[in-house]
Design brief:
Layout lengths: L8 H16 L6 H8 L3 H7 L3 H24 L5 H18 L6 H8 L6 H20 L7 H22 L3 H19 L4
Helix pairs in contact: 1-2, 1-4, 4-5, 4-7, 5-7, 5-8, 5-9, 6-7, 8-9
Length: about 190
């Protein structure tokens, strides 16, 4: 591989933490391990990101951008509002299998960085707000009940994902998906459209 085709240090660092953080946890992985496995100098980390904290935020922003692109591609042509909402559950199921049930990178980060004013927690909230906005957008036309529906969907989604990690199975999020479908169907019957 030539120097021109070799990934830049910043990219190597992001690729490395994308493997290490889900496996071991963000706080458990030290800077020395990151730079050793990325094959970069410590100065490269500080030059590219300034700190481990900023690297973590960049890692989450990268995952957020990936998730948004995957969602945009998957939702293309999906017209039914319920199916648009349930797509998030389907994508979580597929991701869990690829990640060997290590959990949602955003929920994992939220657990490790509980202070809501921390930059990592703020990056997590940006992603979660985007997910809720997609649900609200899909449910437009269900009137003033949309915020309540979105809040309930978030609880089902988070619970399913956390349960999936603990059970090392997609069964909890599949159940959460079915409960979300029932919630949205009952809302339609009650005139919440």
């Amino acid at each position: 591989m030539t120097a021109l085709s070799s990934p830049r240090p910043a990219e190597r660092l992001l690729e490395t933490v994308s493997l290490l953080f889900p496996l071991h946890g963000i706080r458990a992985v030290g800077i020395d391990q990151i730079i050793a496995e990325a094959g970069v100098a410590k100065a490269s980390l500080y030059q590219a990101f300034g700190s481990k904290e900023a690297l973590v935020v960049a890692y989450l922003e990268r995952q957020d951008a990936t998730d948004r692109a995957v969602y945009r591609a998957a939702v293309t042509g999906v017209e039914d509002p319920v199916d648009r909402v349930l797509l998030s559950f389907d994508l979580a199921i597929a991701a869990a299998r690829r990640r060997s049930y290590r959990g949602c990178v955003f929920l994992n980060a939220a657990t490790e960085f509980p202070d809501s004013s921390h930059p990592v927690a703020e990056a997590v909230e940006v992603h979660r707000s985007w997910v809720r906005a997609r649900w609200a957008e899909a449910l437009t036309g269900r009137g003033e009940r949309v915020p309540a529906l979105v809040e309930r969907l978030q609880v089902l989604y988070d619970g399913g994902i956390a349960g999936m990690k603990a059970a090392r199975s997609t069964a909890p999020v599949e159940l959460a998906r079915e409960m979300a479908r029932e919630l949205l169907s009952s809302g339609a019957r009650e005139g919440l459209q």
